[in-house]
Amino acid sequence: xxxxxxxxxxxxxxxxxxxxxxxxxxxxxxxxxxxxxxxxxxxxxxxxxxxxxxxxxxxxxxxxxxxxxxxxxxxxxxxxxxxxxxxxxxxxxxxxxxxxxxxxxxxxxxxxxxxxxxxxxxxxxxxxxxxxxxxxxxxxxxxxxxxxxxxxxxxxxxxxxxxxxxxxxxxxxxxxxxxxxxxxxxxxxxxxxxxxxxxxxxxxxxxxxxxxxxxxxxxxxxxxxxxxxxxxxxxxxxxxxxxxxxxxxxxxxxxxxxxxxxxxxxxxxxxxxxxxxxxxxxxxxxxxxxxxxxxxxxxxxxxxxxxxxxxxxxxxxxxxxxxxxxxxxxxxxxxxxxxxxxxxxxxxxxxxxxxxxxxxxxxxxxxxxxxxxxxxxxxxxxxxxxxxxxxxxxxxxxxxxxxxxxxxxxxxxxxxxxxxxxxxxxxxxxxxxxxxxxxxxxxxxxxxxxxxxxxxxxxxxxxxxxxxxxxxxxxxxxxxxxxxxxxxxxxxxxxxxxxxxxxxxxxxxxxxxxxxxxxxxxxxxxxxxxxxxxxxxxxxxxxxxxxxxxxxxxxxxxxxxxxxxxxxxxxxxxxxxxxxxxxxxxxxxxxxxxxxxxxxxxxxxxxxxxxxxxxxxxxxxxxxxxxxxxxxxxxxxxxxxxxxxxxxxxxxxxxxxxxxxxxxxxxxxxxxxxxxxxxxxxxxxxxxxxxxxxxxxxxxxxxxxxxxxxxxxxxxxxxxxxxxxxxxxxxxxxxxxxxxxxxxxxxxxxxxxxxxxxxxxxxxxxxxxxxxxxxxxxxxxxxxxxxxxxxxxxxxxxxxxxxxxxxxxxxxxxxxxxxxxxxxxxxxxxxxxxxxxxxxxxxxxxxxxxxxxxxxxxxxxxxxxxxxxxxxxxxxxxxxxxxxxxxxxxxxxxxxxxxxxxxxxxxxxxxxxxxxxxxxxxxxxxxxxxxxxxxxxxxxxxxxxxxxxxxxxxxxxxxxxxxxxxxxxxxxxxxxxxxxxxxxxxxxxxxxxxxxxxxxxxxxxxxxxxxxxxxx
Amino acid sequence: xxxxxxxxxxxxxxxxxxxxxxxxxxxxxxxxxxxxxxxxxxxxxxxxxxxxxxxxxxxxxxxxxxxxxxxxxxxxxxxxxxxxxxxxxxxxxxxxxxxxxxxxxxxxxxxxxxxxxxxxxxxxxxxxxxxxxxxxxxxxxxxxxxxx
Lengths: 1016, 148
Hints:
The complex is a heterodimer of chains A (1016) and B (148).
Chain A: H1 3-19, H2 22-34, H3 36-43, H4 60-101, E1 113-115, E2 118-120, E3 130-133, E4 136-138, H5 140-189, H6 193-197, H7 201-219, H8 224-243, H9 245-292, H10 294-299, H11 303-356, H12 361-373, H13 375-401, E5 421-432, E6 435-447, E7 450-454, H14 460-468, E8 476-481, E9 484-485, H15 491-497, E10 498-501, H16 512-516, H17 533-541, H18 556-559, H19 564-578, H20 581-590, H21 599-618, E11 625-627, H22 639-644, E12 646-648, H23 662-670, H24 673-692, H25 700-705, H26 713-733, H27 737-745, H28 753-761, H29 768-771, H30 778-798, E13 803-805, H31 817-822, E14 824-826, H32 833-847, H33 851-858, H34 872-885, E15 890-893, H35 902-915, E16 921-926, E17 937-942, E18 945-950
Parallel strand pairs in A: 7-16, 7-17, 10-15, 15-16
Antiparallel strand pairs in A: 1-4, 2-3, 5-6, 5-8, 8-9, 11-14, 12-13, 17-18
Chain B: H1 3-12, H2 21-29, E1 32-36, E2 41-43, E3 51-57, E4 60-66, E5 69-76, E6 81-82, H3 84-89, E7 96-99, E8 103-109, H4 110-119, H5 121-147
Antiparallel strand pairs in B: 1-8, 2-7, 3-6, 3-8, 4-5, 4-7
Helix pairs in contact in B: 1-2, 4-5
Organism (chain B): Methylobacterium tarhaniae
Pfam families (chain B): cNMP_binding
InterPro entries (chain B): cNMP-bd_CS, cNMP-bd_dom, cNMP-bd_dom_sf, Env_Response_Regulators, RmlC-like_jellyroll
């Protein structure tokens, strides 16, 4: 049995296996078909991409075939086309030996032989061969060279085929990997709340990043490799069989053994591999958990426990890997042994045949050559087979995470109308794993309205708010608007019309603005055509989105503004009203001004910079600021700042790293400053050692004042000790050149260059008026200013960049806005200098009306991972403004105001109550009764019930209040409010909203959290 | 003027006379040298006590606002320490201190000073000794006033 046939059969088996799960597949296909329309919009226009947001095939091979059959077939055709040439390249050595070298072609006394005879071979029953070309007459040498050249040519052609096939295969694999990764990511977006509860972020990230990688690598080979190598091996095998049946059978026997025994041995290897995959995925998950909860680890002192835990895991992983290695190399050894055995048999038995005259020498050589070609493809085929099993297992394991039952359905088109009219809850119940949270809640609210839900301390109020916000899907009952089930609505429309701000704001790394407009990032730009046609075609081919990115996705219309600057103004207006304007202004002062993005502000900053200086002079405060002057040393700035005369943009030029920068060192050495700096460094180190000795490490005074950190003290002490030793040695042995060299050899040169670098690093942060060690004189200042110019030229010549130089007529983009305005350093040794200069600056900013532009720069402030650079109050404000700029029909606040503190929450609530209630509705979860009377309608949570609505200010709830738009009834605690009990007021006479949506589009119940809203 | 001269000035202060020079250097290094123009306030009565000042050069007047304008209580010259009671007692300034000529002073930050006190008992004892000495003086004055 040939290897190729075996491989083909296995492939067939795999395909059959794919057919073995028809039910699942039908389901998948059904889903895909049903969702084609919606998915087509999302994932591009490629019909094949329809499942980008749908399920994955249960069988890897089916998945591969469905998405890449065209490419696979094309590549297979090329493989087939290459085979005859490959056969020819096997046959040529026989002809070279037999015809040219041994001279069989010239046997009958012929001086010449025919070369390049082209004959169309026909089966015997069809007739004779058709001769196409009679060939050239050549002599023995010419024949040898001719045949050899042909052999070379064939080698080249085969190489070219191989190259093309490999590239095509690689591209195919990468495309499929891209598709698979994107699909998995799309599926994550559809995880149901239950699935999310069991999912660790770092594990899913590992799946998408690492685990599908080998799958992608395999996809390129899935069909082509067995086809290519299988046919190649079959060709070689057929060739051997044609030469000699016995040798052929012998070879086939060995191959058969290889194909039967080795995979058996490898099965165990696969099992171990699977274990390893799970173990390392869990390791990644565990590390992620520890990193996320590092604060808890520290505060509980659980470092040792965590270390032991991870150590144990690593130990297990090590054992697994070791067992895999042992097994793997055992298999390899066996494989090699079998491969090496066969040539021995060939030489032995083939030689026997040759001696007996049953086999020509040429044939023997060709057979051995052909057999040489046989093991690599066979080995690769066996590898392929193992990889197939391995990757299938991996694929199945990945699939386990993305089973359809873990996903929520796709969004379907449905109703999309203003949320106005009678919103009714009909028997709404929410069941959590630990018990019911809401049972049979029935009530109705006339929208638009201002609704407060007073919590009783339990989770009911918050859960009901989330039901209204569609964050929780009720387990029983339904929500209707004007008697239409909200499930009929399109999910996209509802998420656009309803905004929800909870107690934990979720912020993404990026600027304040990015986070606030996140809710408006819904509309792919229509006018922005993708210019890169190649990228677009690739995206289509891989089922990736074709919408342009990066691009401006902001839906300005939803925010009700015309463009980006109007949106900024709107955002700033909200931020100011909520009381974060001052903070954003300060972010702006510390922010950077990109002259390209803010050309107006950049120009005005230069203007303001000059005005600032004039104003200070007019007030008699010119001496408070020492301006940056290219030709003068700035006494109030550090040595490093004076040297660079700009702001470093790479870490290689920042802080102490400057002392190690090669260009800087060259300039320092050339100008002789290096020696001065080393001396200064010695004196600083000596002083620090003297005065900070005895302070415990980690003492705040170290952090605040010392040039050295506590753990650096011993290091610098050692450096200084080496200096003393060097100087003593120099004194003893005199200063002869020989001695100097000798001292350098034994490591007592004045300083090792490492020591010098460490010392130069110290004075870089030195400011004479501040540190007062008396290290800098006028001569040093002069030389430093010279070095400054030289450094700039040298850096420019080296073309390295890395510094944004100060220029009196330009904005320094790398420096904070405030520094650009000041363009100098405040003289700290004058009492109250900072206050005086700040006051002048503030007055100037007001006079020149720069504040709005500066505040806009503040919107570029980076919030850090999960918004950690902001305070919890700021995070809450950002989350709130994010909901507000969307202008939702219904805003649900579920604890969103509680981080603001009582007084501020009351103010913000007042502001919101003013804005909402006419066209838009506001629902706020209240922790207690105190603010309840500010709402038109009040619901009360009691156990698993929601009672109301009642209209505050009434002594006996349930009575109708004349003149008020809405009327409510209070239902006695424990009783069930039915829709019939509800009365709706005039406010419900809004246009009937007719909508449809699918319930499963929204997230299901989440674990109940007791959330408090306004403390007021 | 460098750290060394400031250390010399600190040594003139009775409170710091016994303190190890290296500690005084640390105190000087962690303090700021500030210049006050003629007539500029060090601090006003009622301000929060955030620092003590050691006058290095120049003169400063200690005043209280009276009905007929400020009443000068004392004139402080070089090597005088002012405001130390406020930072130790954590009470608002009891009087106003103003530079009467261009004056240079060493501003000893309250937080840093207390940090040094807690870290180096030697300084703390020196401060206690000085305070006890002042109390003794006050007692004597009180006794004199009673008898006189």
